Amino acid sequence: MSVNPVQTALEENIERRAPSLPITSAEKANMIIHYYRGEMGRMTSWRDRIDRTTNWAITVVAALLSVSLSTPTAHHGVVLFGMLLVSLLLLIEARRYRFFDVYRARVRKLERHYFAQALFPQADLKPDWAEAIAKSLRTPCFLVSYRDALFRRIRRNYCWMYLILLLAWMLKISTPKLLPDETEADVVFSWRDAVANAAFGPFPGWSVIAVVGCFYAFVFYASLHHASDDGELAHGEVHV
After folding, report:
1. Are 240 and 156 within 8 A, CB to CB?
2. Contact between 232 and 111 (Cβ < 8 Å)
3. pTM for the whole structure
4. Whole-angstrom distance, CA of residue 9 vs CA of residue 1
């Protein structure tokens, strides 16, 4: 049977280009160590992006509150604008959190199934734990929905920022000395006055209060909502 020299040369060229897979236990251990470092680097990078967005949100809250509460000429809409900016940063952070969760899950699987087993072996762990990592590497996909990521970030950090903004807004519309038409009174004495102070441009006060109330009902629900702990969140308590 004659051998095609062109096909043989092509196969040899392909074999020379393809990287060799680890065979010995030492090679596999070395590969896992380097892979773990790489995943740690990506996880740390996305964690830094999450923290950066949170820092921006805190800075926005502090800056707008200092502007709104420092002078009576500042409109209460400044606080409403702060709620809008914080919500925009929240949406960005939820997206970043979904990427961070992918790399965190890979790192946690390596730590829980490989490094923990090397330090103190246990027989109850699944022997096919690496299959999930290989599947994630072949077809990367998000492990948490955008809604759950949004709820987690609200529950962990943003609920407190929204609470501070709500208290500042209520203080702004209920304190005449913080309003443009300053009076001698310290607080409003009727619900009608507070509703009138909440007016925003062409929108009457009752509609602004209704929108803010609906928005904070959603924030309250998201803060108390706990999704079922599955995946790596089911193991341990130290999670972002």
Report:
1. yes
2. no
3. 0.83
4. 17
